Amino acid sequence: MILPIVAYGDAVLKKKAKEIEKDYPKLDELIENMYETMYGAYGVGLAAPQIGLPIRLFLVDTEPFSEDEDLSEADREQMKNFKKTFINAQILEEEGDEWAFNEGCLSIPDVREDVFRKPKIKIQYQDENFETHVEEYDGLIARVIQHEYDHIEGILFTDKLSSFKKRLIKGKLTNISKGKIKIDYKMRFPAMSRKR
Ligand SMILES: [Zn+2]
């Protein structure tokens, strides 16, 4: 089932998400629905707060990047087969010199900006069976994980921009939160769902 993606401006996107236990209700179904939602919107990652749940769960499938002509052959090859569900993730280490990459977000359609992040991460997480893993990633895969991880920390990529850039996109962000935007996937807008 495709779930509506929460748009910029909703308070759930600013909340630090909570850990979950193995008995979290209908977790398998939730994960399945999140994959369907992500694929339906042609995203490479989706975090639970983006579908309205403040829990530490996100998924990544970088396959769409394998078609990206701007990337190197090696990068594209690596992107082809990276699909993973991260539960209760904690980034343990981030290192290296920050590099810029043009990021976008399903909750902030039509806004793309260069974001600086460190290239290497070490992350601890649990998989769908609640087995704990500690893994290291770099490059574009690390980048996608860092973006999704920020979501469960209540951080959006727009928070990481300079105050000058923030001012430039302010109007666009206001329009998104009001639903004044054309999109080809299902979204939920804060201004419209507000109860009187
Ligand atoms: Zn995002």
Low-confidence stretches: none
The molecules bound to the chains, other than polymers, are: zinc ion
Report strand %: 25-35%
Radius of gyration: 16 Å
H and E string: EHEEHEEEEEHHEH
- Helical content stands at 25-40%
What is the average per-residue confidence, as pLDDT, rounded to a whole number?
Answer: 95
Question: What best-fitting shape do the alpha-carbon axes yield?
Answer: globular
What is the makeup of the main sheet? 5 strands, antiparallel
Lateral arrangement of strands in the main beta sheet = 2-3-4-7-8
Distance between the termini: 29 Å
Count of DSSP helices? 5
Judged by helices, strands and strand pairing, the structural class is: alpha+beta
The total count of strands amounts to: 9
Textual characterization of the structure:
There is one protein chain. The protein is an alpha+beta fold and 196 residues long. A five-stranded antiparallel sheet has the order 2-3-4-7-8, with helices on both faces. The protein has a two-stranded parallel ribbon with strand order 1-9. It has helices at residues 27-40, 73-79, 139-152, 163-177, 190-193, and strands spanning 5-6, 45-47, 57-61, 83-95, 99-103, 113-117, 120-126, 132-138, 187-188. A hairpin with a 5-residue loop joins strand 7 (120-126) and strand 8. The chain is globular, with a radius of gyration of 16 Å. The chain contains five helices and nine strands; from the N terminus they run E-H-E-E-H-E-E-E-E-E-H-H-E-H. 29% of the residues are buried. The mean pLDDT is 95.
